[in-house]
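Researcher: Please translate sequence to structure tokens.
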Amino acid sequence: MTQSGAYTPWAATHEEVLKALEVSPEKGLDAREAKRRAKQHGPNQLREAKARSTWRILFVQFKSLMTALLAAATALSFAFGDWVEGLAIAMVILINGAIGFVTELRATRSMEALYRLSRVNAKVRRDRKIQEIPAAELVPGDIAFIEAGDMITADIRLFEVSKLQADESALTGESMPVTKKVEPLEKEAVLADRTNMLFKGTAVTRGSGEGVVVATGMNTELGRISSLVEEAEEERTPLERRLDEMSRVLIWATLAIAAVVAGAGILAGKEVFLMVETSIALAVAAVPEGLPIVATLALARGMWRMARKNALINRLSAVETLGATSVICTDKTGTLTENKMTVTRIVLDVGTIEVDGQGKEGAFIRDGKPVDPSEDEILRQALETAVFCNNAALGEDLEKRAPEDTQGVGDPMEVALLRAGAKAGIDRSRLLEEMREIREEAFDEETKMMATYHEYESGGYLVAVKGAPESVLESCSHVCASAGDRPMKDEERSRWAERNRQMAKEGLRVLALAMKRVEQSEARPYEDLVFQGLLGLQDPPRGDVPDAIRACKRAGVRLIMVTGDQPETAQSIASAVGLIDDGSEDRVFHGRHLKDPEELRPEDRRTLLEAPVFCRVSPKQKLDLIALHQRNNAIVAMTGDGVNDAPALKKADIGIAMGQRGTQVAREAADMVLKNDAFSTIATAVQEGRVIFQNIRKFVLYLLSCNVSEILAVSLASVAGAPLPILPLQILYLNLVTDVFPALALGVGKGDTSVMEHPPRASSEPILTRRHWTAVGAYGTLITFSVLGALGLALNWLNLQGREPVTVSFLTLAFAQLWHAFNMRDPGSRLLRNDITTNPFLWGALALCILLLLAAVYLPGLAGVLKVVRPSREGWFLVLGMSFIPLAAGQMYQVFIRRDS
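Model: Translation complete:
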């Protein structure tokens, strides 16, 4: 390949670049050549930021203040000559680190794997066919097709453009979109001036084009820049920050309490070393230092559950926000409807034609009689316009497929137009052979139209136009009729507008067709058009949407349909899915009513806040709608699929992009991507978000109440001058056994579907509210008095001697904390069957903890280190009886709450 083609493709003509890359735009690469080049150049991927290494994750486990305190206790033990206890504490450090290591490694690797689930595709021509392939499989020489909304996945030399503009701010810093062209440039042109190139990592904001891939992977401009980056900065979610802040406060509060406990014990005549060691162990046990780790695992596991239910989460922080979502703004097509568009009606000047059948098979019927498109010139011309003015492709193997399996490549609406043409025997590729396409006016949000120019063999050009009926009608001066084209008068324009409204009221998406003949290809496309007719496309509502809408309404989540369709179409679909009552026309608002909230009168603001349906909404108006509800303290989720939706997706608290029909720009801007484009998936994700937050709240409440019980038990005994109910190593052992495993199980539970029976929580609501802090104190006090009561009864009633009384109090505390996990069920849930009793992870955690507690008293070596003995039968009865008191009291309280409510 020549120097100009290989290293400066912008300086060569596109013909030179194509020749150097040995590829034809009409054929593309064949499969064998593409495979060979893939081996030569490698996958089209950037080197990923270096993942957190296993050693680094292990090292982090020993950096905390808690580990430093444990190390101090170990040093004190060795200093006082207590080698067994020192080694035991050292083992605790290692075991605690191992648990944190395994947990965090699993969470980290789960997140890394989750991010790899989402794959970006690219549209290319290979083996003479247009097809979508994973972007990672692009190779130099691939002929790429680009449309508005695409994320560019390789460096591309353009050879055909139509109003093509790209946002290159991520690469060049240029804030304005760059208009692209095909002419060669100076070799010295800097990156920002290479207007005939598209670069990996940029986004197409307007228009369409074709080009040839000239660089992939690390050889792209973005690859050269990314090679300078060693490692991406680690993101911390708001939840993790809140947990860290709470842990730091608890650390210093506990250190103060530990100092008081040590002082009180020493003043009461207890051994100095014992009290210092106890206070350190108490400080370690009292602070739930594993909170961020368990929270990350809970979030990651929740994200995996969402991924299995077709919701990919792009940002970890989105998971907790989902649980607080109070308003969902959803589009119509493909989300509330099936996005299986079919042309069912064609309205022409000569009459209305119904279209039936699937795929290529079907019939055209007028007044109950079949119509042959080959014999009906007006019908055939209208279908040819729909096929000409099109960027989709059905594929050459259409005839080999089942009738329902004819979804081609491209916009579903355009695919539906090609299917309608195929029913009439009109094939786009053959049509283009007869009248090649000269240029294209890409669809524009402002004009709401698209046009293509095609060359007649005899000279002149055909302009084929499709678009919104009101826009096309305004651009037409004539009507196509059987007796020839006639001028369109205002009365006739009004009649066509009324036909459009009637079709829209039936729930059809309506498209207008027009054409004209011009002498010059530079002629303006949207002037003096000949109106051909209206196409009605049917897109039935998804069957699962009504149930999902009812579930959201029960959950206190407001639903708003935001669509670019006409008011009548929006009203019909909203009624069909149960979003509004039949005939509620006054509840459908036009997008023009949406303004900056600052400009609205209070009464208008209230009206718009209650509106369930908005039609003909522009991207700017979506931003105003989001701002309106956010000013009303709502947490807003917004769906979108196009490049113009990206600002709204970013502004919303939860941006939701469509995975099937969504543009790559929209998917990049979103917090969540729906793999199946279904609204019911949004409702499921909201439920999962609520469950995850409830799980985090449960294990935080569980951990803190257990830790408070340990603090109170030791503190009260020290102040009262009584024997310590639990010794330092026993505290550390419980910290490993009864804290970690049940907490992990609570964090990954599936939760209760009843979370969707309550209104969303406020976004400012903390993890633990005042009610939860009261519960922490109450549960901690209950467990404390059970432990101290067991110790008192062992000493004064059973007259136990030696180490057995402390063994009884140790086991009472341990089992009370285990049974306490059942107090974490949702208020109002059933006693025997609830989200806790049906959590298999919790039963496994309890079984493991019981085995470890039995090992503590029955394995001689471990029992000696922990200074416990085998309890007598009476001792076990006392342990079990006293340990069930907090559970019984907690369940009675739960029943009382349910009855009171």
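Researcher: Any highlights?
Model: Residues 311-337+542-677 form a domain with the Rossmann fold fold (CATH 3.40.50.1000).
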